[in-house]
């Protein structure tokens, strides 16, 4: 059984991610590893024994806080914690990202579920935040949960494709996610200067194109939208699709470092707030 890593700093936002992770694990039959990163500043003149004792005391205190934090959330959900399939881990280190990547290798982690720490929009989620660092530097997929988002099941996944010419290759990573979650898949590609559903180019005719892909992957519960974003910047067009279609998860590929900054860190985004209304799964 694979394991989901759930980092927490005991904040309200991370509590939202914990709640989502508990429901997600029940749906997918996975183990949960709740993790807290700690770093204790100790005077350099301290003896080795004093140093080790301080580290031990700090770790024990944080582990007690972590277990109490998680148990309280389970009680609030009226769910009994499965002690066999849930674990607590406190790890000391200078870098949260380094600690997370070490845990991924050691604990066979295949998904990270993390809160967005109060982000009120796309730009704040992706630029200059711990969530952005985890998304870009972790070794496995990351599912970012918006503040106050409640798990309502997973029936539909939306995938934002950046290149229809490479869609076949991209779907090799996306379709297994939809299959595991038993969800339908809505693929959308945003461009400018084309009709909402391209019909002039047979290759991108929604019906013909999807029949071909469905046969290839033997997965038939998916649809394609090619959308004219007009003068909207990409982040706004993505948000418009999410608001209109109301998927349960938005999936994006992050193949290059700085990918999200290129999309969202523009002068226009300084004037507009784009609310992240659904969980975002980032896959490399």
Query: What class, by secondary structure content?
Result: alpha/beta
For the sheet with most strands, the description reads:
10 strands, mixed
The total of beta strands comes to 10
Q: How many domains is the backbone divided into?
A: 2
- What is the assigned CATH homologous superfamily of the largest domain? HUPs
The CATH topology of the largest domain corresponds to Rossmann fold
Mean pLDDT: 80
SSE order, as H and E?
EHEHEHEHHEEHEHEHEHE
Radius of gyration: 21 Å
Strand content: 15-25%
- Outline: elongated
Number of helices: 9
- Give start-end ranges of low-pLDDT stretches: 118-128, 194-203, 265-274
Q: Provide the helix percentage.
A: 40-55%
Name given to the CATH architecture of the largest domain: 3-Layer(aba) Sandwich
The end-to-end span amounts to 22 Å
Structural summary, described in words:
The structure is a single chain. The chain has 284 residues and is of the alpha/beta class. It folds into two domains: 143 residues, Rossmann fold, CATH 3.40.50.620; 92 residues, 3-Layer(aba) Sandwich (Rossmann fold), CATH 3.40.50.620. The protein has nine helices and ten strands. A ten-stranded mixed sheet has the order 3-2-1-4-5-10-9-6-7-8, sandwiched between helices. Helix 1 packs across helix 2. The chain is elongated, with a radius of gyration of 21 Å. The relative contact order is 0.14.
């Amino acid at each position: 059984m694979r394991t989901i890593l759930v980092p927490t700093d005991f904040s309200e936002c991370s509590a939202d991610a914990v709640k989502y992770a508990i429901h997600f694990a029940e749906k997918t039959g996975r183990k949960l590893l709740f993790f807290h990163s700690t770093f204790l500043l100790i005077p350099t003149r301290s003896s080795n024994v004093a140093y080790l004792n301080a580290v031990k005391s700090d770790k024990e205190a944080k582990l007690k806080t972590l277990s109490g934090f998680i148990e309280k959330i389970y009680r609030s959900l009226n769910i009994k914690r499965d002690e066999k399939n849930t674990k607590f881990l406190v790890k000391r280190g200078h870098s949260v990202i380094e600690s997370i990547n070490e845990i991924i290798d050691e604990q066979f982690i295949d998904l990270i579920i993390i809160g967005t720490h109060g982000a009120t929009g796309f730009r704040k989620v992706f630029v200059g935040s711990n969530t952005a660092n985890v998304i870009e530097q972790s070794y496995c997929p990351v599912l970012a949960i918006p503040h106050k988002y409640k798990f309502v099941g997973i029936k539909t996944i939306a995938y934002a494709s950046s290149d229809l010419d490479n869609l076949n290759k991209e779907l090799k990573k996306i379709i297994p996610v939809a299959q595991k979650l038993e969800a339908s898949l809505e693929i959308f590609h945003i461009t400018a200067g084309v009709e909402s559903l391209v019909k002039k180019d047979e290759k991108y005719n929604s019906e013909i194109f999807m029949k071909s892909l469905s046969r290839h992957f033997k997965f038939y519960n998916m649809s394609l939208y090619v959308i004219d974003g007009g003068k909207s910047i990409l982040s706004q067009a993505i948000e418009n699709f999410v608001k209109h279609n109301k998927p349960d998860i938005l999936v994006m590929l992050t193949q290059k470092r700085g990918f999200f900054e290129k999309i969202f860190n523009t002068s226009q985004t300084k004037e507009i707030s784009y609310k992240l209304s659904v969980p975002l799964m980032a896959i490399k």
